[in-house]
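Postdoc handover notes: sequence design on the structure in folder B. Input tokens:
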């Protein structure tokens, strides 16, 4: 029975790791978008980003 629990936990961890990787990529892309927009709009946008 323990082996089944271990396999189930491992599958769950794998799914969480995949989701975490996707979320990290999404965050990085969003931060890049904000940075790019800040450069396009000037320092005002960068200051708004820092206050969040």
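Designed sequence:
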């Amino acid at each position: 029975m323990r082996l089944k629990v271990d396999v189930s936990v491992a599958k769950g961890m794998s799914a969480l790791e995949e989701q975490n990787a996707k979320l990290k990529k999404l965050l990085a892309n969003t931060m890049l978008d904000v940075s790019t927009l800040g450069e396009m709009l000037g320092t005002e946008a960068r200051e708004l980003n820092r206050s969040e």
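Context for whoever picks this up: The helical segments are 2-41, 43-51. Don't rerun without checking with the PI first.
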